[in-house]
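Take a careful look at the sequence and tokenised backbone pasted below. I need to know what the token row says about the fold.
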Amino acid sequence: MHIKKLLITALSALILALILIAGIMWRTTSAPTEILTSSSEDGNYSLTIYMIGEPEWPFGPTHCRCDLFLNDKKLIEHQFSIQNDGAIANESNFEIIWNTDSALLIVSGSEQSDAVHLLNFDGTIEQ
């Protein structure tokens, strides 16, 4: 009887530890954190930028994603990285310029030249 209780306790502790490890792994590698959202002048289009997970340790890139929407319809999902000495992404890393047919996203980091991403309203991307 004592062995059965001991096995159940050990199995429960193992399951809890695995859940905790899985949560930490998801947070550090896959969890999206919204950095900023910008809307076009007419309000029809919006661009949301996310940091994905945490920057690679110790001084690696920060992985990001931007989503371009027309009202509630996602037109573009675009992934990119920032070389910023292992720092988390923040609003100062991004500049968004709205044009009549596109959104221009300029991404800056301390260890890279500015990267320009042209997100066209027809769903295409130019870099």
In short: The chain has two domains: 1-30, 33-126. The longest strand covers residues 73-82.
